[in-house]
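Comment thread on ticket #2218

A.B. wrote:
> Attaching the input chain for the structure job we discussed in standup.
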Amino acid sequence: MNLTKKSYEIIAEELQRIIESGVYKPGDKIDTIENLAKEYHVGRSTIREALSQLKARGLVESRQGGGTYVTNPIPTISPFHDIPTSNTMELTQLLQVRKILEVGCIELAAELRTTSHIEELERILHQMKDAIGNEEISQVYDVNFHLAIAKATQNPLLQSMMEGISTVMIRTIRDTRKLWLYSKKESADRLFEEHHRMLQAIIQRDSNSAVTVMREHLSKVESVLKDS
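C.D. wrote:
> Ran it. Output below, let me know if you need it in another format.
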């Protein structure tokens, strides 16, 4: 399996997660190709290809008069899609799964990451920094960062497992971030800093530090859930 995804595939996946998370609603107009190209630092042809991918998936459509609009997304088919996350117990159970999976992912990512993986993580971290204060989009970039760590393991099974729970992760990250922000002053900046520490450990190939940071990060979230 080829783990190296092209730029338009990465952008299409990010836009799909933004749509599925509810940031874009059915009928909303997607930003212009020119603006998206500037945001993602790619050419307009790359954005056009990404939008073509979304059209093929039935997520967006072109309308007469110009512009690309969100359709009624087809529900994601995943063995994890219908997992309930409506109360603290269910959120805690999913967080337990994340701890088992993501601690192992970051350990392997620190050992096997390539320059392209670092560049992707740096790009997402930059997006996270710019999005501080905008919780809707921050939730999507949060998920993207953790998926990029799984990608850096170069293990297709781990990557598929993380992608499989990504829709549920968006819901749980939304809920846990709300609890975190409610209980901790200026925690959006601290959340960003924790992800920055993860990246630094991966860059330095320090798997022990990477594991420690990830475990501490998820344990703090778990603590907030318990306190709620």
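A.B. wrote:
> Thanks. Noting for the ticket: The mean pLDDT is 81.
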